């Protein structure tokens, strides 16, 4: 089975849009426009949540004229944050049809339907001509990609000269194999982590220049531990957490990711690359 097929089987969720509508109703958000921040516990599907999105965005030079492609856009939280904060136009692509449908619904509910759009597509064959975007954005997606060189090459292809690739991903650590399940894979067959050195080498090989490279592992460990405490008694988080999307087993997946980070089995890298 190819990595894309494994990934799709992990993420594709029947009736996801209806599940989100029910969750929003339970949280008292059934009617009217929703603020982006109200969805942060649900639609920021990566370690450190909205904090990671804010940090990555602050490394970029974004404004109302910027065009962005969000590769692996999921439920669309980061793309809506970028559109709402900087006024830029964002196109999100995701392999999962249910995630595309759900992201489109949430864009409508947040009043950002004119600024963001989503479509089903494969990250290894982006349906856009060369030099289409100022920024390519990807958070916690590459771990599901077996052909990492093609993944980075496609991002390079659709960027304009001088464009930026913003990356926030999990990488392999040096202290042994991962403990599964994790948020992106139930078994080792669905996980394709690279070491930080291999990831950086591939990006350079494709043609990118490294503008910024930061290890965010310790910040991720702190965030996971603080989140566990904050969730207690937090009614909104209980009703609008990622378990709504991934099911009750997500708590185990998330706990294992924290353990993998704390034990040095995995790490978090935030990077900005430039297409010359």
In short:
With 276 residues, the chain is α/β, with parallel strands linked by helices. Helix content is 41%, strand content 19%.
Q: What does the secondary structure layout of this molecule look like, with pairings?
A:
Layout: H1 3-11, H2 16-26, H3 40-43, H4 49-57, E1 67-71, H5 77-86, E2 89-94, H6 97-109, E3 116-120, E4 133-139, H7 148-158, E5 159-172, H8 196-206, E6 209-215, H9 217-230, H10 235-239, H11 243-246, H12 250-262, E7 266-274
Parallel strand pairs: 1-2, 1-4, 2-3, 4-5
Antiparallel strand pairs: 5-7, 6-7
List unreliable stretches of 5+ residues.
none
Strand content: 15-25%
The tally of beta strands, per DSSP, is 7
What are the secondary-structure elements, in order, as H or E?
HHHHEHEHEEHEHEHHHHE
The main pleated sheet reads as:
7 strands, mixed
Which structural category do the helix and sheet elements fall into?
alpha/beta
Helical residue percent band: 40-55%
Q: Give the helix tally.
A: 12
Average pLDDT taken over every residue = 92
State the separation between the terminal residues, measured CA to CA.
Answer: 36 Å
Looking at how many chains there are and whether they match, the oligomeric state comes to single chain
Estimate the global geometry from the Cα principal axes.
globular
Largest beta sheet: what is the strand line-up?
3-2-1-4-5-7-6
Tell me the radius of gyration: 17 Å
């Amino acid at each position: 089975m190819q990595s894309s097929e494994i990934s799709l089987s992990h993420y594709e969720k029947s009736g996801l849009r209806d599940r989100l509508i029910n969750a929003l109703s339970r949280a008292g958000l059934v009617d009217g426009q929703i603020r982006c921040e109200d969805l942060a516990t649900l639609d920021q599907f990566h370690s450190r949540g909205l904090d990671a999105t804010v940090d990555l965005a602050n490394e970029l030079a974004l404004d109302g004229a910027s065009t962005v492609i969000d590769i692996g856009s999921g439920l669309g939280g980061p793309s809506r944050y970028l559109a709402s904060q900087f006024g830029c136009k964002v196109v999100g692509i995701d392999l999962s049809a249910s995630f595309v449908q759900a992201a489109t619904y949430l864009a409508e509910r947040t009043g950002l339907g004119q600024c963001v759009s989503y479509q089903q597509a494969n990250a290894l064959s982006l349906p856009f001509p060369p030099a289409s975007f100022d920024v390519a954005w990807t958070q916690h997606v590459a771990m599901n990609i077996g052909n990492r060189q093609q993944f980075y090459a496609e991002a390079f292809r659709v960027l304009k000269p001088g464009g930026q690739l913003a990356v926030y991903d999990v990488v392999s650590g040096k202290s042994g194999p991962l403990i599964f399940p994790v948020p992106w894979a139930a078994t080792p067959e669905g996980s394709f982590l690279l070491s930080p050195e291999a990831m950086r080498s591939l990006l350079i090989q494709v043609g990118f220049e490294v503008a910024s490279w930061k290890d965010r592992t310790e910040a991720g460990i702190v965030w996971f531990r603080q989140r566990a405490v904050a969730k207690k008694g937090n009614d909104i988080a209980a009703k609008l957490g990622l378990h709504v999307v991934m099911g009750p087993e997500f708590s185990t997946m998330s706990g294992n990711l924290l353990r993998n980070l704390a034990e040095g089995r995995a790490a978090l890298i935030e990077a900005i690359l430039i297409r010359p």
